[in-house]
Write a structure and sequence with these properties.
The protein is an alpha/beta fold and about 400 residues long. It contains 15 helices and 14 strands. The strands form two sheets. Strands 5-4-3-2-1-6-8-7 form an eight-stranded mixed β-sheet, with helices on both faces. Strand 10 and strand 11 form a beta hairpin. The longest helix is centred in the C-terminal third of the chain and has 25 residues. The chain is globular.
Amino acid sequence: MKILVFNSGSSSQKSALFELDHKSGADPVPPLWEGRLEWDGDAETLTIQSSQGKKTREERKRVPAHHQAAVKTMLGSLWNGDTAVLSSPAEVDAIGHRIVHGGSRLTEPVTITPQVERAISDVSEIAPLHNKAGLAGIEIAQNLFPHKLQIAVFDTGFHRTLPKYAAVYPGPYKWYEQNVRRYGFHGINHQYCAHRTAQLLQRDLSSLKIVSCHLGNGCSLAAIDGGKSIDTTMGFTPLEGLMMGTRAGSIDPGILIHLMRTQRAGADELDSILNHDSGLLGISGVSSDMRDVLEAANKGDARSILAFDIFIHRLQTGIAAMAASLGGVDALVFTAGIGENSAEVRSASCAKLKFLGIHLDGEKNASAEPDLDIAASDSRVHILVIRAQEDWAIARECMRLYHTPGQP
């Protein structure tokens, strides 16, 4: 099967084409083709990059505010030009879509129907940027690949196993009855990392207690017991939990009430502050990118040092909390952009966790590449660096659903 994966964001569109069959094992396979589209909303500058093996094409140009034509241009390099791997769009068998929020009704990968699209739209009030982008991607794919199977895979789905005591907020119970609850996010990658951990350690997943650290521009932790999510740091929205690139993470809600009363801050202003002006960027004043923050901190910039210290403090306490939820930990996983690439973050976050049996090997950590165990020989806990493979995981779900009885 040739499966095209859509990962649609508010300012980017990533796509990848995979070829899978029933003989495909648990090891992730590289895509036949990858495409990435990014745009700047002010200048409407578009960057298109597509690649097939060592062949890469990149172009920058100005585009209209409506980006469907730009996405079609990027996808056209699948069957046109130096990076082509198909003769026509007809060779694509199925399209998988990463949808960030499935709400309470959409928890399993599902064939996209008008009813499913409405359900995704209904949750857009909770995750407006993410879900609207996902729906736009579905529309583009339906236009380009009519009559092909379209499948939605939900970032919230893996956390459907959260026990009620972890999912319910301690406000009025009617909140829960109105579907105001902890949903959790990054579930596609947390689930993949759990299975990859079991594979790398040659252990049965059902026997493992794993703390998974998805650290990128968005950050979350998951406590995974026997392959099931039992706790996580993100909640009703992706705002809760750890400090992130531009998001505040968990703060005292009384701060928002204070700002509303004293500065007459409205919902839109508070939303912008919490989502776009906080986190690493808000504290450092330098960047939302951990690499830039570390560079400035190493030069003595006080606010960048503080931003790094807050990030590590919250990460350490979060890991310990997840371990407490599990009643112990067998493996600590670092994944996504920061988790995979920042030896400084891994080292600093593990420094105060020796009471959990977590001992990092400094040399292994400094030169680590996914997928490796960087724990010291005397560590009771495995410490793994695992490459995020969301697109491949989505493709695998599409293949599974494609061959499920009752599907085309």
